[in-house]
Specification:
Rossmann fold
């Protein structure tokens, strides 16, 4: 019996990726890959589109730290039918903006049938601060991480939450050049790095799925907003896509006892990654796998300068995601993609 054809798609967060550097603009790539795969494993940065989302039954929504642990072989992924999602709200969110997010959560229950626990509010403001690295990538800090962890623990122990959606108050800076460049399709998502810090902390501490949606005041209408950035211009909240993703996010397990449902990294057939962003933990782990082919995409340029060659990472370099789809189709068919070249070299005798 042939094992399920399994693909991992990674677009690192906050690195200004040409595709996947905005809210949900890598979703078309994920949808196409899911059509030719039995299973697609990817992360919130690829699938989150603010109020827009496109859930697919064979696509697994895995937070970045959890994906790193999966790639390293430390954790397996256990698919679920439905998680009970706990909502964690920063007490620094203004009352009206908090109400908007609670209404979004109630709407997800009423219209999508999602299972949500009662919510918690942190006992201190999280005090998120945004930073930019010299490379241009975004990152950030949390002033009160202990408050975040206490609130998450309460959701798990008192409300029985199986996944956690965090909404933290992020700084408003509508006049910053970085934000304007981002809205016009030219910049880096200055929120993404800090968002990753928040979700990483919860997943690392509690080993359950988590994702984040920033709380921000709506921006003034601007007719020049890029289509890639337009998803973030809708409404008052980015929460819907997070709730949908977490509702079916696989649970993490480090139990190697046989379970036919658990997915481990040694069955991954292919990893797809931007060519200039090959230095991440998951990519380096998969580079040591004898069964996983790594496909690097040149057109998806980023602010990072970590191509695979100096790292000793062997990849199949392609120009575009369309070409990557062709390689995946040939892999699934058991056809050597190299025979599609107009000329083929002869076999050589080993010395």
């Amino acid at each position: 019996m042939v094992k399920p054809f399994t693909v991992v798609l990674i677009v690192p967060t906050g690195v200004g990726a040409a595709i996947g550097g905005y809210a949900g603009d890598a979703l078309p790539v994920a949808r196409a890959i899911a059509q030719i795969s039995d299973r697609l494993i990817t992360h919130p940065n690829v699938l989150n589109g603010a109020q827009l989302y496109y859930p697919q039954g064979n696509t697994l929504y895995v937070e970045g730290y959890g994906l790193d642990r999966f790639a390293a072989g430390d954790w397996g992924l256990l698919p679920v039918r439905q998680n009970k999602v706990g909502l964690l709200l920063d007490c620094g969110i203004e009352p009206e903006l908090r109400l908007r997010h609670l209404q979004a959560a109630d709407a997800a229950r009423a219209t999508l049938g999602l299972s949500l626990s009662d919510y918690v509010v942190t006992d201190a403001p999280l005090k998120v601060e945004l930073r930019t690295a010299s490379s241009g990538a975004s990152w950030g800090t949390i002033g009160n991480p202990d408050s975040l962890l206490r609130a998450a623990d309460k959701l798990i122990t008192q409300a029985g939450a199986e996944a956690i959606a965090v909404v933290a108050r992020f700084p408003d800076d509508e006049d910053s050049p970085e934000l304007q460049n981002y809205r016009y399709g030219r910049g880096v998502d200055c929120l993404a790095g800090a968002e990753a810090v928040i979700s990483h902390l919860i997943v690392r501490e509690f080993q359950i799925p988590a994702a984040h949606a920033p709380a921000l005041m709506p921006l003034p209408v601007d007719p020049q907003v890029s289509p890639r950035a337009a998803a973030e211009e809708l409404g008052y909240t980015f929460l819907p896509c997070v709730l949908v993703g977490l509702s079916r996010a696989p649970q993490f397990t480090d139990n190697r006892t046989f379970n036919s449902q658990t997915i481990w990294s040694d069955i991954v057939d292919a990893l797809i990654i931007p060519h200039t962003a090959c230095g991440g933990s998951a990519t380096l782990s998969f580079s040591n796998s004898p069964t996983t082919k790594i496909i690097s995409v040149s057109d998806n340029f980023t602010q990072m300068q970590t191509p695979p060659e100096p790292l000793g990472v062997k990849t199949i370099r392609v120009k575009s995601y369309l070409e990557a789809l062709g390689v995946l189709v040939s892999m699934r068919a058991g056809v050597d993609f190299r025979v599609f070249a107009p000329s083929i070299s002869s076999l050589r005798c080993l010395s």
